[in-house]
Design a protein that fits this description.
This protein is mainly beta. It has three helices and twelve strands; from the N terminus they run E-E-E-E-E-H-E-H-H-E-E-E-E-E-E. The chain has a domain at 3-37 and 64-115 and 138-155: Roll (Pnp Oxidase, Chain A). The protein has a seven-stranded antiparallel sheet with strand order 3-2-6-9-10-5-4. The chain has a three-stranded antiparallel sheet with strand order 1-11-12, with no helix packed on it. It has a two-stranded antiparallel sheet with strand order 7-8. It binds flavin mononucleotide. GO terms for molecular function: FMN binding; oxidoreductase activity, acting on the CH-NH group of donors, NAD or NADP as acceptor.
Length: 161
Amino acid sequence: MPGERIKVSHVMPCAVNLLTVASKNERDAMTATAMFVSEDPPLFVVSIRKSIVAHRLIEETGQFALNVASTQQAKLAKRLGREKAADKFNEFGIAIEKAPAVNAPLIKGSFAGIECKVITSFPVGNFTVYVAEAIGFSVNESLSPVVWNLDRYYAIGEELR
Ligand SMILES: Cc1cc2nc3c(=O)[nH]c(=O)nc-3n(C[C@H](O)[C@H](O)[C@H](O)COP(=O)(O)O)c2cc1C
């Protein structure tokens, strides 16, 4: 065992998304990883801590957006991964636009925006796992996504052949 220096939850490289969710009167953004689990229909899973605002808003709306963080958003991903604020969009200067298929906003400057509708969910410990269908998406191929590993953020490196 590598001892206490490394947490097992930090070992696998993870996708870094800025998850957004909005009800009629409230909105939130947080950093969350996600995993692609079905092609037809296109499904993703996210697992969200029960005690946080985003969890309550996903429960209320059954919708969210996964804004796949671009390298330009690494600092924002770090902030949304630990800092709380009454309105993160205003306080962190997050520029948004309306999503075509869900009520959750899309964050400008993201590598991709995946609009998700929850189809089922179940509790696991102090988290809830949501399985969600991608009902819309857009990609900005001029940007690059971020990867998280051993609690650090990386740009994708050289292609291996
Ligand atoms: C790279 C990264 C990935 C994360 N993934 C998740 C996740 O999948 N689910 C989750 O509940 N929290 C995740 N977090 C932690 C939340 O982003 C963090 O608890 C955040 O502060 C929640 O916002 P809030 O405290 O304002 O509600 C992640 C943090 C980082 C840095």
